[in-house]
Amino acid sequence: xxxxxxxxxLFERSREREKGELVEAKLRAQAAELQSRTVEAETRALKLExxxxxxxxxxxxxxxxxxxxPRPPGHPHYAVAARMQTATEVGGDYYDYVQRADGSLDVVMxxxxxxxxxxxxFVAIMKTLLAGMPDGEDxxxxxxxxxxxxxxxxxxxxxxxxxxxxxxxxxxxxxxxAVPPLFLWRRALGEVEILTLRxxxxxxxxEIPYEEARLTLAPGDxxxxxxxxxxxxxxxxxxxxxxxxxxxxFGEAAxxxxxxxxxxxxxxxxxxxxxxxxxxxxxxxxxxYTG
Length: 291
What we know:
44% helix
């Protein structure tokens, strides 16, 4: 009898242990399933967020490109070409032409700081301001007006770099706010000059004079404008392209038609960066005074 009781106790203990193991296995399975569902939900949420950001960037890119002029101006004294090569992330590069009733041509290149839709909207505002700018000769007053208007918007995180060339015959007036230098090739000399015009971003509370320059061109002379995305591009070595190298690239193809000149500069750019991702939008404008 004692042996039978002992065996019965062992049997009950065994059953209890098996029940415990089954419960533990069930709980582990439920925990694994819950974790799987949590990971799946997080993955789904991350995917939706990525899709939202991609859609926003694509919308900003379309807005950015829609603000550009569809074709170069058909001006009798200037051959003009422009190209924008966008980066993966949308920036705020912008260029435009305004032909005036007196026969002069305004050429504009700008870059809103930051990326995405907000930068695109800032560029749209700048385009509106440029479309309504007066025909007067006071470029200094014009830029100060732009600065006050943009600052009044109250956006402390986005500013506008801008360069404007007002071209009338052989005479060119240039004014700039926080942009890279312009490059000038004189056909008679066969040399590239680097001209830096200093000025703070538009949209700040700072009001100091924007630097201006006056140029007199001869037939065949060319001007090159570059956005900072070109000059700041990194090579596989980590070195930046910078101004001197851009001037050398310009000199290699200077005298070519503006479109061919831009093709050459972009080919050099691609060779320079190799497999390094393009860091920012790249915009180039080439102008030739045909006389």
